[in-house]
């Protein structure tokens, strides 16, 4: 067994500190060590996007990053985007516009979408489709996922304008 | 009324916040053990020696089990006891489970599972249809044949004939949540199993057999699956049984989830077919007779292959009244994964066969493919003049496609676009566009008649809240939501008052798989029956109390009107409770009017048909074979929809999955029988960027002519087959590159399109 490493993360605003083997994947850290089970495991080979989280402002598939690589980073999972009583506009939109069926891809989808809108608050339909291409959904045919993201973008921009 | 409202999925809020639990998210007790299979490295042979010492000594390993260690049944088959959980010494496909590792972590189990040293006496594997046919390796004694009239004579006597053969590949389910199960031993030897399954009763049955207990000692709970698509109808058995056996042995909670690569290598997929056809027709393209030969690759175990192959035969007519037809189906046994249920259950394969015939004839005769199809449609109700029966003798009495087709042609602007595409193609040499139409007529009911039953359990509590349970499982299709809307409507209360609970074999017993699109039809009716029983009891009691009659009691808007009086539903529940009225009831439903002889191929296997049609436009690039779906228009018949938004979601998702099957999703095995496309890196599932640029989906405004729950229609499987138009559109585009019929195989991958274009251009 290899030597354990001392790792510090800030996950959803909370400081976490632990010792882990260098080979521990971030998705296992989240799901098994920290009981954060929103990010799901769909493939473990970085192709499906079910495990997507945001690390220091970038979308990352947490199944293909070692916890050690994330040492010192800020990690946001779906749980950090909004809870049942304070839904983020994207969460609200996915719910209202049926952007989900089985829901297994949903946490990764929304987490990715939140980063997409961060980078590009006014995406075209095509930019959404290509920006989300790394997240597979087997159920919806993507129609309502695209719709949900469009609706959330509109909502968020309107809120921003109102605040200005 | 809650029915017919486009309400969000019941668990939507949990999903969007990551709170919805799948099997692997359920908190498990300390000391939970994890399981993995050691898999065979060859496709066929016998195990001559097995050295598992390194597996045993691998870090974190608690136990290693082989077939000999299993205490009772060694079987996970859903049909004929031909599928051992662990190899009995023979190997029948590459990736077959041979031993089971029980370890302290998922990773430890997987690492150890790779360390088995197994010697084999390898035998020649049957991997292809030709090999299986030559060896007469099959299920059932010979081919199954369904026929109507004398097809051979009709074809010969017809003015024109065509014939052809094509390959139709299988399909990986790729439910986003892989197979998973967890078993927790109870204090009296009983077992509680959480399983990602479409069929909790079967899991219960197989687990009971494997641990030597009656079914009453096994309780299976399924709250939700992360997708199923038929892939969790029987394929979850192995995991649940493994967990139960290991839990019995160790006394600890045991959990198993397949790694994705293992999942793809172990579990069954859609059946691949080779379809040969011969058809005779007149100058207008009217069919006189058709013959089909289905060679079905069933893999190594029988699983559900017989009813799948039957259903393919039953959809060989699709929407067309064919005077004489003969379908011959060979269910071939090969050394590949055992093919299993997959959305449409053989129906899509049968339907692709006749759509290919239509496409081929339209091409040969130069008739518009939509017009040709309409000439061959079954007659609409009220317009029946001659024979309007299917090849299996069922009267088609609800044919909606004439009207539906008219509406779709209109809304999609088909004629003008077709002309525009033809003009555009003249100006483009490397890129060509194609457009195609395909209709769907899909039979609803399990063809095994006794499966068409369902049960429900409903409680009204004294505070007026309602607990709802039924035998159907939720895999994303929105069944729980739709059925809860039925319950809320029956009591005239708001949705929030209805609590949807996990499918549980201890609440509703002897359930059928949630399959055959039947979930809402069967469970909706069972729930309605249970609710009505309680409602009638309440009405009788309240009427007596308020000195009126039961028919003067109405449940609406969270209120109960009793003659001239009105109270809240909550108050009504309280009064009934205090009046010692039973507020709990079961409900039961069985589909009426069915009778079916699968050997003769005669009778009424289906309660009704669901209809739909699609038009797809594509573009292809001759230099690479690359292609895109530019536009799709769909009109689909969900009867009087219980929830139009959820149903539209099924249509959109079904189309994309169906188009994926016929275009990008290619399964490749090497000459040794190893699946080379065992991960999403090599198996191409449609991504968000592959979605049609324009995607217009609408529900047809109609009612089920049969008496189904609120006159709705099943919607899980039928839209899958709308994807056939994508394949036909590619064919149309390829045809622009030269004379001759393109005769595409499926899936029409970029490589396939490229090859066929080269042939059209005489470059091969
Ligand atoms: S689980 Fe990480 S991308 Fe699929
Ligand atoms: S909703 Fe099932 S995978 Fe996206």
Please tell me the CATH architecture of the largest domain in chain A by its name: Roll
Q: Compute the average pLDDT of chain B.
A: 97
Got a strand count of chain A?
5
Helix percentage range of chain B? 25-40%
Radius of gyration of chain B: 27 Å
What is the CA-atom radius of gyration of chain A, in angstroms?
A: 16 Å
Q: How many strands in all of chain B? A: 29
DSSP strand (E) fraction of chain A?
15-25%
Note the quaternary state here.
heterodimer
Largest interface, C-beta closer than 8 angstroms, per-chain residues:
A-B, 58 and 60 residues
CATH evolutionary superfamily of the largest domain in chain A: Beta-grasp domain
Q: Low-confidence stretches of chain A at least 5 residues in length (pLDDT < 50)?
A: none
Element-by-element helix/strand order of chain A: EEHEEEHHHHH
**What topology, given as strand order, has the largest sheet of chain A?**
2-1-5-3-4
Q: Enumerate how many helices of chain B there are, as a single number.
A: 19
Uncertain runs of chain B: none
Name of the CATH class of the largest domain in chain A:
Alpha Beta
Gross morphology of chain B: globular
User: What is the topology, as strand order, of the major beta sheet of chain B?
Assistant: 3-5-1-12-9-10-11-20
How far apart, in Å, are the first and last alpha carbons of chain B?
A: 63 Å
Most strands sheet of chain B:
8 strands, mixed
């Amino acid at each position: 067994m290899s030597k354990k490493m001392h790792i510090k993360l800030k996950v959803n605003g909370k400081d976490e500190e632990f010792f882990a083997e260098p080979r521990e994947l971030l998705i296992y850290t989240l799901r098994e060590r920290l009981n954060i089970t929103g990010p799901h495991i769909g493939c473990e080979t970085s192709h499906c996007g079910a495990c997507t989280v945001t690390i220091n402002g970038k979308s990352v598939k947490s199944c293909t990053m070692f916890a050690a690589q994330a040492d010192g980073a800020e990690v946001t999972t779906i749980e950090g985007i909004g809870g049942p009583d304070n839904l983020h506009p994207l969460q609200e939109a996915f719910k209202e516009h049926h952007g989900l069926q089985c829901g297994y891809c949903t946490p990764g989808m929304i987490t990715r979408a939140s980063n997409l809108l961060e980078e590009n608050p006014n995406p075209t339909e095509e930019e959404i489709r290509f920006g989300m291409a790394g997240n597979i959904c087997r159920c919806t045919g993507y129609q309502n996922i695209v719709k949900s993201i469009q609706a959330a973008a509109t909502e968020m921009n309107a809120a921003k304008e109102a605040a200005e | 009324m809650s029915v017919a409202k486009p309400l969000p999925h019941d668990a939507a809020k949990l999903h969007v916040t990551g709170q919805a639990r799948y099997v692997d998210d359920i908190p498990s007790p300390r000391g939970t053990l994890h399981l993995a299979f050691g898999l065979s490295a060859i496709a066929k042979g016998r195990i001559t020696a097995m050295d598992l010492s390194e597996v045993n000594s691998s870090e974190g390993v608690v136990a290693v089990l082989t077939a000999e260690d299993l205490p009772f049944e060694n079987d996970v088959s859903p049909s004929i006891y031909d599928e051992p959980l662990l190899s009995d010494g023979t190997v029948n496909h590459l990736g077959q489970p041979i031993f089971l590792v029980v370890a302290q972590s998922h990773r430890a189990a997987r690492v150890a599972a790779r360390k088995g040293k197994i010697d084999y006496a390898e035998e020649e594997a049957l991997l292809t249809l030709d090999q299986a046919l030559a060896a007469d390796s099959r299920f059932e004694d010979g081919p199954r044949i369904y026929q109507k009239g004398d097809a051979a004579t009709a074809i010969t006597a017809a003015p024109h004939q065509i014939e052809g053969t094509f390959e139709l590949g299988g399909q990986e389910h790729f439910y986003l949540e892989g197979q998973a199960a967890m078993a927790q031993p109870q204090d009296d030897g009983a077992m509680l199993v959480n399983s990602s399954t479409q069929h909790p009763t079967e899991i219960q049955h197989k687990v009971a057999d494997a641990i030597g207990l009656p079914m009453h000692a096994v309780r299976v709970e399924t709250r939700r699956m992360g997708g199923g698509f038929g892939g969790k109808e029987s394929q979850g058995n192995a995991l649940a049984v493994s967990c139960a056996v290991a839990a019995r042995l160790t006394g600890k909670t045991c959990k198993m989830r397949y790694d994705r690569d293992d999942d793809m290598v172990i579990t069954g997929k859609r059946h691949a077919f080779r379809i040969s056809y011969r058809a005779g027709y007149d100058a207008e393209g009217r069919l006189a007779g058709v013959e089909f030969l289905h060679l079905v690759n069933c893999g190594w175990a029988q699983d559900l292959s017989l009813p799948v192959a039957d259903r393919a035969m039953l959809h060989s007519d699709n929407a067309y009244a064919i005077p004489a037809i003969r379908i011959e189906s060979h269910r071939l046994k090969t050394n590949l994964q055992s093919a299993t249920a997959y959305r449409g259950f053989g129906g899509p394969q049968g339907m692709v066969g006749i759509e290919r015939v239509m496409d081929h004839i339209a091409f040969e005769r130069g008739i518009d493919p939509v017009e040709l199809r309409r000439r061959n449609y079954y007659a609409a109700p009220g317009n029946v003049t001659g024979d309007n029966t299917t090849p299996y003798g069922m009267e088609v009495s609800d044919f909606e496609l004439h009207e539906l087709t008219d509406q779709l042609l209109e809304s999609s602007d088909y004629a003008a676009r077709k002309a525009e595409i033809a003009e555009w193609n003249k100006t483009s040499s490397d890129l060509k566009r194609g457009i195609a139409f395909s209709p769907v007529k899909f039979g609803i009911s399990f063809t095994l008649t006794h499966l068409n039953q369902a049960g429900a359990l409903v409680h009204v509590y004294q505070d007026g809240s309602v607990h709802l349970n039924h035998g159907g499982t939720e895999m994303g299709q929105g069944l729980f939501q739709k059925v809860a809307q039925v319950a809320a409507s029956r009591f005239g209360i708001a949705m929030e008052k209805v609590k949807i609970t996990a499918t549980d074999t201890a609440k509703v017993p002897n359930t059928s798989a949630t399959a055959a699109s039947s979930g809402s039809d069967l469970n909706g009716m069972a729930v309605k029956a249970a609710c009505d029983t309680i409602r009638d009891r309440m009405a009788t009691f309240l009427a007596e109390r308020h000195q009126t009659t039961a028919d003067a009691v109405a449940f609406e808007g969270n209120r109960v009107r009793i003659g001239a009086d009105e109270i809240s539903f909550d108050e009504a529940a309280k009064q009934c409770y205090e009046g010692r009225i039973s507020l709990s009831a079961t409900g039961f439903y069985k589909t009426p009017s069915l009778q079916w002889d699968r050997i003769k191929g005669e009778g009424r296997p289906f309660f009704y048909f669901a209809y739909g049609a699609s038009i797809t436009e594509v573009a292809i690039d001759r230099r690479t074979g690359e292609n895109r779906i530019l536009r799709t228009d769909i009109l689909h018949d969900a009867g009087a929809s219980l929830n139009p938004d959820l149903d539209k979601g099924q249509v959109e998702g079904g189309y994309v999955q169906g188009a994926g099957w016929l275009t990008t999703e290619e399964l490749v095995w090497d000459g040794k029988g190893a699946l080379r496309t065992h991960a999403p890196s090599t198996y191409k599932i449609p991504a968000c960027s592959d979605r049609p640029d324009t995607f217009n989906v609408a529900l047809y405004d109609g009612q089920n002519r049969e008496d189904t729950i609120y006159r709705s229609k099943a919607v899980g499987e039928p839209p899958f087959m709308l994807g056939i138009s994508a394949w036909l559109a590619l064919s149309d585009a390829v045809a622009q590159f030269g004379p001759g019929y393109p005769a595409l195989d499926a899936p029409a991958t970029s490589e396939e399109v490229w090859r066929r274009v080269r042939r059209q251009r005489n470059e091969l």
